[in-house]
Write a structure and sequence with these properties.
six-stranded mixed β-sheet; 6 strands
């Protein structure tokens, strides 16, 4: 199985020992995205909605760089600072995803990188 690294300047550069995404066969594993503006590498923290939007915009840039679309995403894992944000996550997701929706898990965690309120990772499968 061929493995390749996906990178785009339209999403935040990795801030640790990881890649934005890794493609193995026709499956793309997208690293957790936090609300960093890719141009400035500054956090977006105007509101939770702005954070969630930035996260999905970042993810979209990686998805596009990998040759896919949001319709190709099969699984999301959403990490939140507080489950109170969950209804708004659904609202923001509806701007990016159409039915049939990907499988999803959501967790409230004690702390996220840079003390953000949301991080999302994804698995995408591309057509052969």
């Amino acid at each position: 199985m061929q493995k390749s690294i996906i990178h785009t300047d339209k999403a935040p550069a990795a801030i640790g020992t990881y890649s934005q995404a890794v493609k193995a066969g026709n499956t793309v594993y997208i690293s957790g995205q936090i609300p960093l503006d890719p141009a400035s590498m500054e956090l977006v923290n105007d509101s939770f909605e702005a954070q969630a939007t930035r996260v999905f915009d970042n993810m979209g840039a990686i998805i596009e760089a990998a040759g896919g679309s949001f319709a190709d995403v099969v699984k999301l894992t959403i990490l939140l600072s507080d489950m109170e944000h969950f209804p708004l996550v659904n609202e923001v997701m509806a701007r990016y995803f159409n039915e049939p929706y990907p499988a999803r898990a959501a967790y409230a965690v004690k702390q996220l990188p840079k003390n953000v309120d949301i991080e999302v990772e994804a698995i995408m499968v591309l057509a052969d």
